[in-house]
Amino acid sequence: MKLIRNISLIIFLLGNVAFGQQYTTKAYGLFQEGKYADAQKYADSAIVSNERFNSQLWQLRGLIYRKLEDQDGNADNRNIAIESFVQARNLDEEGKYKEKIDGYLYNTVIRYYNDAVTQMNDKKLEASESSYTTYKAKYIKYVDAEMDFKANDIEYYTALGSEYLKLVSTQSGDEKTRNTAKGVNYFQEVLKIDGNQFGPNLNIGIMYYNNGADLIMNSDPLTPIEEIPMIEAKAQEYFKKAMPYLEKAHQLDPSRMDVIEALTGCCYGLYGSENEQYQKYQKILDEKNLPILLDKHKANPKDKHVIQELVRIYSTTFKDDTEYKKYAEILNNLEE
What we know:
It is a single chain. It is built from 14 helices and no strands. Mean pLDDT is 91; it is low at 7-19. The two termini are 55 Å apart. With 336 residues, the protein is mainly alpha-helical. The longest helix has 25 residues, at 228-252.
């Protein structure tokens, strides 16, 4: 996601200040000097005086409070800045300052989006989502009521879901289950907009597949035998959930091997090695991996894992009795 920099040209031309605008004039002078806290006091005095009917006063007040937010990070100052710019717009009945005020509002509201990006980068995911929601609400209210956020939502929620995918890869138990659900939810938000998005389909499938695979691969070897069917059943539920998303991802990009690997694992976990679907996907993998395995064996003839894979491939996927016996004998010799 790209951070939208807050670039605003703070060129505030007060113009000919009419008699009776003393507070505004003083606030403007202090603002130019960078004395924002002092400028705030005069601006706040001005809005409860007869000067409060001047659109330029409210523009100045908004800029002062925005500078105060830059200094102290207080979000209340941002809200006051927005309220001030809105009041400036309301008083600008002839639209003399419309373009300038609209720019001030845009550059202030966009800060919520910048917050969302920064918080996501800092792994503050819940805060990021809250900032993004606030950004959209205020953008519609103050900047453009007709704004279509579909493209923005696809980019943002794909990025947020991906952060949860990274997060759950380091977690386990209830925490992993809870954050998996959050990640899936954000990817599904994207798919509601466009069901043909490859990334969200892949990532939902991968999240579910990994949860199922973890249950099987990381199960305690001392687990009572009567509990094993329950673990397997739970893993299969994850595989079932993963399948439609992985199949959609495979349809969108048939060349992606990570999708095929996950589909192979799901089919094996659900149906076993005799299943036709499993064999179809495993064949694609083996066609891709066989030359790599042969090169690895040539480089390291004693790598047992590589030899075991070659034995499996030549005994099942590409049945070749000569090659099978060759590598089976090598494996037997290594194991003796």
